[in-house]
Amino acid sequence: MNEKVKVIISNEQKKVKIPTGIRMLVRRCCNAILIYENFGKSAEISVTFVDDERIRELNRSYRNIDKVTDVLSFPLGENGNFDKNNDTGAYMLGDIVISIEQAVSQAQVYGHSLQREIGFLTVHSMLHLLGYDHTDGGLQTVHMREKEELVLTNLGLKKNDSYYIEEDE
What we know:
Layout: E1 5-11, H1 22-36, E2 43-50, H2 52-63, E3 71-75, E4 91-99, H3 100-110, H4 114-129, H5 138-154
Helix pairs in contact: 1-4, 3-4, 4-5
């Protein structure tokens, strides 16, 4: 496979230390979805970790929803058509913004690892970048959930798996 996937990851928050291996996990999740969806082209994705305050600002600005959320997706394509980076030849899929504070909280609520939660949020958001939506519920929501679970299971992050996370305090 000649396709290259470039995942640009940035951390724009200071409230939660990003555990070792999370950046690699995010890259693996992005690649796994593109393989599963037979994307078959070079791609670029931006993933940014933010705090609750910042994701609330973005949610308010772009969606008119004045509350904290766990992840936001900003697709750059529509109907499978994406802009191409003329320098690299890669298709620019869009931006993923993850509230690391929400990820930590939700991992505790759902009783699974932070890796599982960040993996889920990344895979979920990647499907949005590729055009999937679940706002109307129904069948598309079911298809998204099935794809998310299949990809996460293939990555070794199936539901209710627990991993020991060493915390630096």
